[in-house]
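Weekly modeling sync, notes
Attendees: S.R. (lead), two postdocs, one rotation student

Agenda item 3: backlog of single-chain predictions. S.R. asked that every request posted to the team notebook include the full sequence so nobody has to chase files. The rotation student volunteered to paste the first one in as an example of the format we agreed on. Action items at the bottom.

Example entry:
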Amino acid sequence: MSSIKIDGIECPYDGDAKPSLLQVALDHGVEIPHYCYHPGMSVVASCRICLAEVAQPNPRNDNKLELIPKLVPTCQTPAVDGAEVYLRSPKTISNQKAVMEYLLINHPLDCPVCDQAGECSLQDYSYRYGSSHSRFEEDKIKQPKKDVGPHVLLYSDRCIMCTRCVRFTREVTGTDELAVFGRGSEEQIDVFPGKPLDNPLSANVIDICPVGALLDKDFLMSMRVWNLTKAPGIDGITASGDNLSFESNEGKLYRIKPRTNMDVNQWWTSDEIRYGWKHVHSPDRLNSPMVARHGVPEATDWNTAYDEVLSKLEVTRLKKGEGSLAVVVSPMLTCEDAFLLGQLARQLDPSATLAVGPVPVNGEDRTFPGGYTVRAEKAPNARGVKRALELVAGEGGVESYDTIGNGLRGGTFHAAILTGNYPSAWVTDEMKAALGGAFTVLIDTLPGALTDAQPGEGADVILPGATWVEKAGTFENADHRRQCFPQAIPTLEGAKPEAQIALDLLARLAGERPKRFDAAAARAEMGGVFANDVHAPAEESQVNSEVEYVTL
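Predicted structure, as returned to the notebook:
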């Protein structure tokens, strides 16, 4: 194991990996200011603020430490065993102040209205490494604001020409929409004529921009970042398992950003995942249990809905015999949801048939030059749901969605519990027709074919469920990696997580008080890989807003 010292701090590193001085510092939590450097892209050493005084052993002089005569870019200089980096030396500090002064010459003084305020490297470094006043007295050069793509706005006068965004479109996506145009003080980032920034990963340039030059149209002027509470989460839209950060305020989700995980999504996420959460706050969300009276759904309370479910399913079992119940668990649900719903099914009918709901697939997987893959499978947990149901039904005991449809049409099943939670319509006309006279319980989040049907054609009982950001649980992605996540925002009033619904009904069957759902306890009960092989986010990932709100 090799080692360097940074301002006297011992920083060991893997010598075979040949990291740069800057990367060693970042790996040990030592701050060296930098703008153009990003570990996922090529090194250009253009911003120059990471320059520092460095001393290295000289093999021609008995490996004695000798100061390199000039400042070196720490982002580009390989770490050498025994080297020392001096970040607080007069020469290093003088360079930092000079670079900050240069970068701020034409930068507008609009921090109070800039969306990047609060998470801006230019703002932070100006405070820590810059000067308290400016010597610049001439007029600033003004650059235009540009609409460069469906998700991104470019404020050119804030740009410091770090070229991270240009290298991203060249090296990570391979789409080359962005380039540097002009020279000198007129230099600008721009798109080629007729070629907007419109690739499936386009919004990642917003995350890697160290200043307020590239901004998110969707988040623009909506919330100050210091008011946001951040919770770690997992992609609930596709099978990628991307590690994400859910940022909310007072129970409302405002944006989703990628969370670095080199084993899954690196530093990136797709636009589909980033903007695919809007159904969480849809005004059409189901927010009250409903029971069909004379074929027409009527809002009711949870106790009445539960009584209706248990009594009608018991009547069906007594009349039609065991094996007449089918339970379809959506691949949009968590492993814990699936396990508890499976237990409920077998309590209601020991011979109940368990199945995984339809798994949407759109095209084929697409892997970009940088290594990120956009998954064609548009369900986060098909593998996890199947694995959890097999804990109840046994291996090979979980049927397909088509099998349930065939059984309903053939008269094998006379009652069904269906779960949805898809971001869009999912019940086909064929399934709706197959349900026919079967007693149907629907647990879903959005209205659809079974909630808006003609009298007598829809679900008999409708129970409002919770989206994945409103509950804790575990997803298993396309690579069979199981990842758990906490609840990010409160569950919509009037709705309940599917696992809680299952626990409530199980308690009623046993004549006990219902337990409160605990995802960790459910995983412990499930055992096996769910107890021993689930990846959890780092504890420090949870960040609460420091702003307290009071009612006046």
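Discussion: group reviewed the output briefly. Residues 149 and 198 are 6 Å apart (CA to CA).
Action items: rotation student to repeat for the remaining queue; S.R. to check formatting next week.
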